[in-house]
Write a structure and sequence with these properties.
The protein is of the alpha/beta class and 241 residues long. It is built from nine helices and seven strands. Helix 2 crosses helix 8 and helix 5 runs parallel beside helix 6.
Length: 241
């Protein structure tokens, strides 16, 4: 089989980007399940923060203010706000977002020193200087084209300085109720980044379980989350030597 040429690759990329637009358009704009006023969402958010801080410490990233970080799929800016609170410097943070409304929402809430770009992450990463960390949070589970996933992973990896890493948070199981997403299992992460040294933590109590038990009492999130098979996401540090 003849490999696709540059024009074919560009066409395939544009088709997948349009599909991402369409998938997000089908989602509820304000889903109360993900509001931090929801105890289950709050518990998952706090758990992920703690896990991320532990991972930074384990990887020797004790001076977060000195690190350059780019978020792929920066959405409405929530993750970048979180990183600011954890100690990152605004002028050393950047984000790229495909969807115009989400990009505008991020620009409205983030400091002007945080560099935000509206557009295609592939093109952005290819033109940007290399950084210490490239971060993605639940982006790849919304990309259903395997070839596009690999092209984006390659661009992310190329954007990381030696000694840096890709920081990854995403779910590993398919959601049978949502055909617009697909879980990214650990084997797939390894295939996307074959040269990386992988450190991984399983996190996040399965959201349907979390919502059910938190209606009884929020403390049940922590209790049930002690069972690793009930955790649906992974937080990964993909290190580049």
């Amino acid at each position: 089989m003849t490999p696709p040429d540059d024009t074919e690759l560009q066409d395939q990329s544009q088709a997948e980007l349009q599909a991402v637009h369409d998938r997000y358009a089908r989602r509820a704009p304000q889903d109360a399940r993900y509001s931090l006023l929801n105890p289950a969402a709050l518990a998952a958010w706090q758990e992920r923060q703690r896990a991320m801080l532990r991972m930074f410490a384990q990887q020797g990233c004790t001076d977060l203010a000195s690190l350059d970080l780019v978020e792929v799929g920066s959405g409405g800016g929530g993750n970048l706000l979180e990183l600011l609170r954890l100690g990152f410097t605004p002028s050393r943070l950047a984000g790229v977002e495909l969807l115009a409304d989400r990009h505008a929402a991020a620009r409205a809430v983030l400091p002007a020193a945080v560099a935000l770009t509206h557009g295609d992450a592939l093109a952005f990463l290819q033109q940007s200087p290399r950084c210490d960390i490239v971060y993605q949070s639940t982006v790849f589970s919304s990309l259903l084209d395997a070839a596009f996933q690999q092209r984006l992973a390659d661009a992310m990896w190329a954007a990381v300085k030696p000694g840096g890493a890709v920081l990854w948070y995403d779910f590993t199981y398919d959601n049978p109720r949502n055909p617009d997403v697909r879980g990214v299992p650990l084997a797939r992460i390894r295939a996307l980044f074959p040269q990386a040294r992988l450190s991984v933590r399983r996190v996040t109590l399965a959201p349907p379980i979390a919502r059910a038990v938190c209606r009884v009492h929020p403390a049940l999130y922590t209790l049930l989350n002690t069972l690793p098979p009930l955790r649906t996401h992974v937080l990964c540090w993909l290190a580049k030597d």
